[in-house]
Amino acid sequence: MKIIDAHMHLGECRIFGERITEEQLLGYIDRYGVAVAVVQPFPGAPDVVDVHNRIHSLSIKTNRRILGMANINPRLEREFVAKELTRVLGSLNFVAIKLHTAGHAVAPANPSASILFEYAAKYRVPLMIHTGPGPFSDPIGVAPRAEEFPEVKLILAHAGFGVYASAALWLAKKYNNIYLETSWSHVYDLAVFIREVPNKVLFGTDLIENVPVEFAKLEGLKVSDEVRELILYKNAKQVFNISHI
Ligand SMILES: [Zn+2]
Fold first, then answer.
1. Structural domain tally of the chain?
2. Distance 31 CA to ligand 1 centre (A)
3. Model's pTM, two decimal places?
């Protein structure tokens, strides 16, 4: 069965103290048979342009088994953000944009975040939004944007991260353009997502150490092959508009 990982990172994070190397990325996609990993910089990347370039190099090297998701602080100068989004979405064929509410201290409805929604609409790519505990990350804050940009697919990263799982599910049921990426979500919440909105659930892992954990959750739930294919492959293929696998 083909596998798309909707949420993985490359590089260093000076906010959350993480680091993922090219070797680790290439190692895990082979070990777990990941057909495509959608890879983004961490919010605390010291040089986001450099990480975008490294993701693009890996994309070429792997024949597009690695695809790029832009993750740039929307509070930086608008000219810089616009130029970098135009570059990665226009020339480097990145397939999505990230809004890191916690990492960049910006709520979805904050005017600073508007540029990310506008470029997602302009380039017809999905926008992934970090959800979970802490200020700025309550998924309910995404609702006004779902209504403002009905044509943009919005992916709730971590699907509320346990604490806001019910709100994330409510949004996915109410809005056609809201999807749930389920890394770090509780296994019992994942069971509810799969039962209630099977066509909205996307498999994601986030960190190398968390990859086996996310597969174990599907094992624990004894998900049918049909639903497994939706979560691991078909839903993400449609959301990210992936045509080569
Ligand atoms: Zn992440």
1. 1
2. 20
3. 0.98
